[in-house]
Amino acid sequence: MKPVLEVKDLVAHFYTRRGVVRAVDGVSFTIHEGETVGVVGESGSGKTVCQLSYLRLLPEPPLRILGGSALLEGGLDLLKASPNQLRSIRGNRVSMIFQEPMTSLNPYLTVGTQLCEPLQIHGLLSRKDAAIQATAALERVGIADASAALKRYPHEFSGGMRQRVMIAMALTTKPKLLIADEPTTALDVTVQAQILQLLRDLQKETGMAILFITHDLGVIASIAHRVVVMYAGRVMERGTVDEVFYQTQHPYTQALLRSTPRLDVDQGKLSSIPGSPPDLTRLGDGCPFYGRCAYQRDACVRVYPPLRLTPTQHAAYCHLEGLPR
Amino acid sequence: MGLGYLLKRLAIMVPVFFLVVTMVFFMIRFAPGGPFDGEKAVSPEILRNLNEKYHLNDPLLVQFGNYLKDLVRGDLGPSFKYANRTVNELIADSLPVSLELGVTALIWALLIGLVAGGLASMKPNTVWDYVPMSFSILGICLPTFVIGPLLVLVFGIWLEWLPVAGWDAPEDRILPSLTLGFAYAAFISRLTRGGLMEIRSQDFIRTARAKGLSEARILIVHSLRGGLLPVVSYLGPALAGIISGALVTETIFNIPGLGRFFIQSAVNRDYTVVMGTALLYFTLIFVCNFFVDIMYALLDPRVKYE
């Protein structure tokens, strides 16, 4: 499989009055054609900022990209691309959908106008053909009476329907990569399941890659092939879903999994990770999870943990060799 | 927004109009003094004749009834102070002047305010923001009687580019309308900046960027409609206020507009002129707000009037 996007050692910091916020610090991952990669982590772990930073969707300043690369298929480095190149990629080869379907669509414009926009501005289709394509896209995501829906405004749709509109909008240009930033978090569970199924079906049809950001491990288990676990702006563990869930290498991943409610095991009181995430302006040299980790040792404070890599590319950054079960 | 709603809105105007007529009529009548009290005492006979001529001896309710009857026919009655002139004539003479001054001033205000506010919102906390916003503070704080003479001093007397007063040639319009429009421009620039900044922080603007739209398209297609709503709602009262006369500007530049009647008629107890100007102002406010509401519904699809 060809890689669609290769992010290597991405470093992006916010320069604020409070100090330097090390929001993304040496993140690497790869996503291939037809594959779904889940990015998990707590709020503030940098999972969203990381994606927004290489797409250059965050205001710079305060953000500064300090290093790394983000290579698209074909070799273009997003971190070195010109504003024009970036615009021609966004919404075209790389599309994005967001968490809040209620506020992510423009309330002043009809769904049709917004849906046709990517096709028109990327010069793919004329206005008339774009409308036909938009109708087809709405039908594909399961919106009844699509041609009438084009003339309606976002507030006339429910949350789930709006997320379907967002998905249709992101997919009109047949992107190679879809970045989905918690697309189901604001929806109720039944609608959530429908949206996940829709994304799976669409992936099968188009072969696009999906980068799925969420803090919900259950969602990851049901949709992703591989997982990147992030904490304090860094990657903690990376591997296939099975590896990360069943042969967990990192104490943070283990703690996350333990704090997820399960139906198959009687857990008693749900455990939580003690303490709170570190202040990103005051990270030391050591492991950022030090302080909340159950297996901490002296080296963890002083030295950044080494990368441990299995032959199957299952990666974890930890001083510990072999995690106690 | 249905036609029914619009008609209902207009129908409401009738009782409110009646209420305003009643209140203004009795309030000005109960104020001490009368139209013929002056520094020079008028002889009792002349006073009696004057009162007789203007029916001021009739019981108040009868006068009110007669006023209403005339009003229905569109007759605002004779002025008590300007002999042989009717209120209709006074308004007909001065309203076009005020209208022209006001509309010109508002065009200035929109032109300057929108550009300054738009610039400031695009580059917040830079020179492009600080300079126009400092001027805006000046415009809000400095009263017209400072700005007017200042402009006259610079452009009329030092540079000799523009006439210092009058209302004949086209170039006479420039300084008065700028003077009058400056404060409005200042306010509009603040509203524009605030409105656009608010819109630009919304999630859907991030969506627009993620779709690969250019900044220009994001501003024009995605931000302007929502961002300018505060300006639109301000325009109603602003327009009514600005065209119903601007006493200070009119005085500085010696312009025969409506503004002077507002003040003079109240001081003179020129009952009919007070009524006429008050009713004109009320009608303007009502009509302008009516159009603002229509604009609102056209701009924001979520606004529904039932």
What is the averaged pLDDT score of chain B? 86
- The helix/strand order of chain B is HHHHHHHHHHHHH
Q: State Rg of chain A.
A: 20 Å
The CATH topology of the largest domain in chain A: Rossmann fold
Helix content of chain B: over 70%
CATH architecture of the largest domain in chain A: 3-Layer(aba) Sandwich
CATH class category label of the domain at 92-256 and 283-299 in chain B: Mainly Alpha
Describe the structure.
The complex is a heterodimer of chains A (325) and B (306). Chain A is of the alpha/beta class and 325 residues long. Chain A contains eleven helices and eleven strands. The two termini of chain A are 34 Å apart. In chain A, the strands form two sheets. In chain A, strands 5-6-7-3-8-9-11-10 form an eight-stranded mixed β-sheet, sandwiched between helices. A three-stranded antiparallel β-sheet of chain A has the order 2-1-4. By secondary structure, chain B is mostly helical. Chain B has a domain at 92-256 and 283-299: MetI-like fold, CATH 1.10.3720. Helix content of chain B is 74%, strand content 0%. The longest helix of chain B is centred in the middle third of the chain and has 36 residues, at 87-122. The termini of chain B are close together. The A-B interface holds A 55, 57, 86-92, 95-96, 98, 100, 103-110, 117-118, 121-122, 153, 155, 166, 169 and B 202-204, 206-214, 217, 221-222, 225-226, 299-302.
Could you give the topology of this structure?
The complex is a heterodimer of chains A (325) and B (306).
Chain A: E1 3-16, E2 19-32, E3 36-40, H1 47-54, E4 63-72, H2 83-89, E5 94-97, H3 111-121, H4 127-140, H5 146-149, H6 159-171, E6 177-181, H7 189-206, E7 209-214, H8 217-223, E8 226-231, E9 234-240, H9 241-246, H10 251-258, H11 298-302, E10 307-309, E11 315-317
Parallel strand pairs in A: 3-7, 3-8, 5-6, 6-7
Antiparallel strand pairs in A: 1-2, 1-4, 8-9, 9-11, 10-11
Chain B: H1 3-30, H2 44-53, H3 60-72, H4 87-122, H5 127-141, H6 144-158, H7 174-200, H8 203-210, H9 215-227, H10 229-243, H11 247-253, H12 259-268, H13 271-299
Helix pairs in contact in B: 1-13, 4-5, 4-7, 4-10, 5-7, 6-7, 6-11, 7-9, 7-10, 7-11, 8-9, 10-13, 11-12, 12-13
